[in-house]
Known about the structure:
Shape: globular
Number of helices: 7
CATH architecture of the largest domain: 3-Layer(aba) Sandwich
Order of helices and strands: HEEHEEEHHEEEEEHEEEHEH
CATH topology of the largest domain: Beta-lactamase
Structural class: alpha+beta
Number of domains: 2
Amino acid sequence: MTRAFAAIAADAENVEPYAIRTIRNGDRVLFTRQKSEPQPASNPAARAGIHDVLASVVREGTARAARINVPAEGKTGTSQSYKDAWFVGFTTDIVVGVWVGNDNNSPTRGVTGGDLPARIWSEFVTQSAPARAKVARTQSRTTALAAFETGDTKLVPNTAVIRGMAVVQNTGMLEIQGRVVRLFGVEGVHGRPAREFRRYLGNREVVCEPTGSGNDYRCRVDNQDLSRVVLFNGGGRAAANALPELRALEQQARSARVGIWGGRDDDDD
């Protein structure tokens, strides 16, 4: 099942699972797995429909317990007499299958795929990103924050692409290489959404392109627009300058009651 979902995630006809990459004897390589490019999936329209269905399962269906701070897709499953419960899901960079059951094939105590397996999946995927590396000294961080608060754009120029690992100030404001940038169209919040945002970013490079409007940037990680990620998952509110597409994502999150729209405290430390 995980292999099948991996093919959907990769938009490929098939994905070949393997366990061994290389076998070595000292410096001598005895075996290396030959990589092959997967064949692109046929019928893109059908694949798009599958993605929509699997996303709705997590967003508002039986796998709501698997919701995390990034777009995710998946499907729950429960066999007869509750003998097996599973959830297989994926994000843009990881596919994980979770099975819960007894080794002797006896029934569980009413465990369903949307319960324990979905929660295990959420915890594992949330914590699977490598520990973040610390960037920027305290002095540069203080200077950058002061520049943002006072509107001194000389210290935070909006004329060139900024890239690097980010320190999350809130879900709408990042510090990269000692510079503070604001995500376009997002009013950020602190608390749990900000912590989940930090885990999502991990130690990956963030690339921010200027919008030409104040300190606002469109920032991306692995080709994922961070403004869209935040609003899709209820991690913040649409700002006054948000485009219709971003406001639509906020409305979806409101309707699904995810993130800050689910009634949880978003201002705790």
